[in-house]
non-specific serine/threonine protein kinase (Dioscorea zingiberensis), 428 residues
Amino acid sequence: MGCFDFFKEKLKNKHRRSAPISATASHNETSRSTDSGAGKPTSKSSGSSSSQRSLPALYEEKAQHLRVFNLKELRNATNDFSRLLKIGEGGFGSVYKGSIKPLGSKKDSVTVAVKKLNQNGLQGHKQWLAEVQFLGIVEHPNLVKLIGYCSEDGERGIQRLLVYEFMPNKSLEDHLFNKAYPCLPWSTRLHIALGAAEGLAYLHEGLEVQVIYRDFKASNVLLDAEFNPKLSDFGLAREGPLPGDTHVSTAVMGTYGYAAPDYIETGHLTSKSDVWSFGVVLFEILTGRRSMERNRPRHEQKLLEWLKQCKKFSMIMDPRLENQYSMKGAKEVAKLAYSCLAKNAKDRPKMSDAVEGLKQAMQFTDLGGPEESMEEFASADSDDEKGVDQTNSTESQRRRMLHLAKLNENANAVGMRKFVMMKAASST
Ligand SMILES: Nc1ncnc2c1ncn2[C@@H]1O[C@H](COP(=O)(O)OP(=O)(O)OP(=O)(O)O)[C@@H](O)[C@H]1O
Ligand SMILES: [Mg+2]
């Protein structure tokens, strides 16, 4: 099946903007709705206007550059998906380094990353389709470039592949947590945080349709040769609410440790769900700790819980930085992170505000600075602490969190790490 065929079909229904979503997600997975706060939309992108075009129309206009590969070409490009060329494996499939000849040019081959999605039927197809439709319409220095795709249904099942620009410096996750890599300097951490924030702000506020990324985490922030960050993995992305709607109702999907508690609780997805995940990653950048580390003592396993136990600000900072950071700048970043983790999604900043906050923090270039207690954050995060506690505040939510964790453990067990899915509370 070709992507274009799919979208042409949908274009016949121009007035129904939700069409590609309900086809991308299963028909009962995603819907839009206003909640009891009707008339008070929580998150309206600046791009949201009544004259905005549909996703298929945008795809028709903007995705012409995508190259359609056949399986044979990609076999050749990756030496028949050689294990020696395998560079990663995620919840959706394996990634190989490959090389392709640019079309219609005598230029040298270019290095690419080829993701071969697991052959798990409809789910794999849905992830693939979401990547093609969203990465096909976006263009931003902080989003990974999709070069093309392959879709073949043969005797050996469905084959869905994606071809991306190659990112030579792995992911933020590798550089923050893998001790085999040298410590990421403070200025590089800020540069990466800023770029990632700009990528998210573009998705939320810079397109004709709003795009909610839904899987923001350190492993999805890839790094180019100059350590510029680019968001990858759009398999869970969704179109945001229509003007007048407050949220999109979905089955809860994402990654345990990064998903916003309000989204887990209700299945109501807004751009502020991404903002929460961004706050978690900011704390990973500050602390050098993963959002969830099961091999630590119980009370230290959840990053957000551990933060509450730290009495002095310098205690939270990554010891690998060896105090080579500006205390004032780090505190600014921590304040921003806490605001992203506000209990009430409406109180979280827009990503464009987060971009400004990070730019402010980058103004502080003097290393060191006065040590202070964590109390100064008490006012900023008093609500937010409740927000974090809220994770376990109701019995139903506690059950959902346990379920989510369990699913995640199972996913780990079969190598489908960190990918989780749960029935939407909102569909009840
Ligand atoms: N465009 C790319 N260029 C270079 N390496 C890539 C590219 N895309 C992915 N990779 C590598 O493949 C790895 C696996 O990516 P993938 O997105 O499939 O899984 P993940 O992000 O680790 O986990 P998850 O499935 O939970 O998102 C990445 O961590 C990265 O090292
Ligand atoms: Mg990924």
Notes: DSSP finds 15 helices and 15 strands in the chain.
